[in-house]
Design a protein that fits this description.
By secondary structure, the chain is an alpha+beta fold. It has a single domain, classed as Endonuclease/exonuclease/phosphatase (Deoxyribonuclease I, Chain A, 4-Layer Sandwich). About 25% of the residues lie in helices and about 35% in strands. The protein has helices at about 1-20, 45-55, 75-85, 145-160, 180-185; strands at about 25-30, 55-65, 85-95, 100-105, 110-120, 125-130, 135-140, 165-170, 190, 210-215, 220-225, 240-245. The protein has a six-stranded mixed beta sheet with strand order 3-4-2-1-12-11. The two termini are about 35 Å apart.
Length: about 240
């Protein structure tokens, strides 16, 4: 009987481990097009932060592509080169004679990429989906307007429901943990980062608006979580998790 119990216990442990076969470091960072708290544009500072963290995936918000105001730099490509990662840029709108939106840096290229526009009364927003064999990695930047954020939560729910696999989403959600739209997110997503940890502004954070979420219905084992103490490179603090799923 003792041997049988041991075998059953081993089987349970093996099953749990086999169901969580992806181990990744996931990062979210609003880089404010490389403008630091000293109002100097220096993309290398953001790249240095990313390199130190060494993520498998980083969702970037506020990224320019060949825009006059940021020196005509393709920022996603430049950050990819600086960090040695693959880059994907997701434009939301035209800005300063170029494009502006969000991006992702990844160690492993995705099988497919989707860029879905989201509502924003003040400006169009977007939702980036990277598809892999057995999971999705997503990134977004929500509107400053509550009604637009609520609509965005529903659009994201509909898009992710098309896939039968776990999903992780990073982003600057521009919403407080106590907001109605954040509670709406809870219907389909579970917070993987600490929603009580402040991330904005970087030089004296007083608000939590940057988060990492995992799709409900799947198991996520967060082994480590950190809001990076980087008060100069951007107006947001980056955050990351080490997660098995």
């Amino acid at each position: 009987m003792k041997n049988l119990k041991t075998l059953l216990l081993c089987a349970v442990v093996f099953f749990a481990v086999s169901c969580q076969h992806n181990q990744m470091r996931i990062m979210s960072y609003n880089i404010r097009i490389g403008i630091g708290m000293d109002n100097k544009t220096d993309l290398q500072r953001a790249a240095d932060v990313i390199t130190r963290v060494n993520p498998d995936f980083v969702g970037l918000q506020e990224v320019d592509s060949v825009a006059e105001r940021s020196g005509w730099v393709d920022q996603a490509k430049a950050l990819g080169e600086m960090t040695g990662m693959h880059y994907i840029f997701a434009p939301a709108l035209e800005r300063s004679k170029g494009l502006y939106g969000i991006a992702a840096l990844v160690k492993e290229k995705p099988l497919a990429v989707r860029n879905i526009h989201l509502p924003g009364r003040e400006e169009v927003r977007t939702f980036l989906v990277l598809e892999y064999d057995d999971y999705l990695l997503c990134n977004t930047h929500f509107s400053l307007v509550a009604d637009s954020r609520k609509e965005s939560v529903e659009i994201i729910r509909q898009v992710v429901s098309e896939y039968d696999k776990p999903a992780i989403i990073t982003g600057d959600f521009n919403m407080l943990p106590t907001s109605e739209e954040c509670h709406k997110m809870d219907e389909m997503w579970k917070p993987l980062s600490d929603t009580t940890r402040f991330t904005f502004p970087a030089n004296g954070a007083t608000r939590a608006i940057d988060y990492i979420w995992g799709r409900e219905g799947y198991e996520y084992d967060v082994e480590y979580y950190e809001v990076v103490d980087e008060p100069m490179a951007s107006d947001h603090l980056p955050l990351y998790i080490d997660v098995k799923f």
